[in-house]
Amino acid sequence: SFLVPYLIMLFVEGMPLLYMELAVGQRMRQGSIGAWRTISPYLSGVGIASVVVSFFGTIYYNVINAWSFWYLFHSFQDPLPWSVCPLNGNHTGYEEECEKASSTQYFWYRKTLNISPSIQETGGVQWEPALCLILAWLMVYLCILRGTESTGKIEQLANPKTWVNAATQIFFSLGLGFGSLIAFASYNEPSSNCQKHAITVSLINSSTSIFASIVTFSIYGFKATFNYESCLNKVILLLTNSFDLEDGSVTASNLEQVKDYLASTDPSRYSEVVPLIKNCSLESELDTAVQGTGLAFIVYTEAIKNMEVSQLWSVLYFFMLLVLGIGSMLGNTAAILTPLTDSKVITSHLPKEAISGLLCLISCAVGLVFTMEAGNYWFDIFNDYAATLSLLLIVLVETIALCYVYGLRRFENELQAMTGRALNWYWKAMWACVSPLLIIGLLFFYLSDYIITGTLQYQAWDATQGQLVTKDYPAYALAVIGLLVASSTMCIPLVALGTFIMHRYKRGDTAPVA
Predict the structure, then answer these.
(1) Binding site, annotated residues
(2) CB-based burial of residue 40 (10 Å sphere; 0-12 exposed, 13-18 middle, 19+ buried)?
(3) Residues at the annotated binding site for Na(+)?
(4) How far apart are CA 208 and CA 191, in angstroms?
(5) Does the predicted TM-score (pTM) go above 0.85?
(6) Could you report the per-residue pLDDT of 39-76, keeping only the tens digit for each?
(7) 150 pLDDT band (50/70/90 cuts)?
């Protein structure tokens, strides 16, 4: 149900808009702010909005690299620390929280995050994740030091949220709207075949994503089956001990018949045992799939711990995750640094190395918020709300500005003169009509979904139950969410308004005196 919208979004949104941003960067030879200012002075806010979104992404995304470092360092232990539950204080059994959850969940929520029960209980900074975050930012700074010189169910198809999620995945994976594509493309040779680059990158990106999804769903299935069988074994053991049954007499195939038999022959004792019997369901296990960061640090570690030579696979996996994360950070920081270094006002006072250092230092300092006990809840806020709506709006304004402000025919002629290749009907149809109309539809569904949903909620970890529970965001968290969305999206109309006022003011100053 997700694959169909994903592929449609790839061809009507991802590929055309990737080509558009690469072409704009290569033609204008500037970062996002300068590129859109060249198209129209009133559009400087589009570039600023991209920089703001990239800054938000930079702040929280490197926390993932910090967690990757944390898991990588622990991958050299035998056994892996998330493969078994630790003993309790009396050494008479396992930690209760770990027994109720799982060893991988316990290591993630308790040992890695030391998560608080709610977002209101902030707690202090966890020094180990904080040190890993500093290390991650040091790695990013060393990489950018010199700067860039060259460069399920079918009815889900009717659910608008599925299409929004598919579009969001395309936007994030290709980096649309962040300004990083424009920044990188500005270093291309003018004759570079950016159309070929857009097609190649889009197809390779989506192919690897689909391949990764096959692995992911295989692991989902394995984990769900493993949890289901473990649940059945616990129920069988409970019934065997409670009713003094012969070992092996109760199996997964005859469990329901045995429960009916016990309920009819010994109803009083069975009624005492019923509250302890878990409802084991393979479908419910599959429906409670972990998403986001939990996918990388809970589901995959569940699979790794059951592999032969698990330490080797763990090191390889988290090293891969770290390399991917650092690569994403280079794109995010380039989207911020390129417009800053394009400014002669800034570069005349600070060298590129100092600008890069300040960006990393400020981002690291703010990012320490995510290493607090409630930090993961704030991480989810940034991950869910800092970019999604903003990216849709930014890319919508970009397509409208290029086609109807700058002029599609004008840009087509310039692109042909620059690359020697004509723009075919597919790209023109997508840019001028299909892509912007679809984005408008997605924006409508995105906003209406949140209006219908009502109060925004989040998943909090309940240590007493060993599972996630749903809670409402407090008022100040909702205020932060609103600020995150407004701080980027409002850049577009406010800068346009400011530019209009400045032009009117200058026009008034130069008006002839009667």
Answers:
(1) 173, 205, 324, 328
(2) middle
(3) 173, 205, 324, 328
(4) 29
(5) no
(6) 999 999 999 999 999 999 999 999 999 999 999 999 99
(7) very low
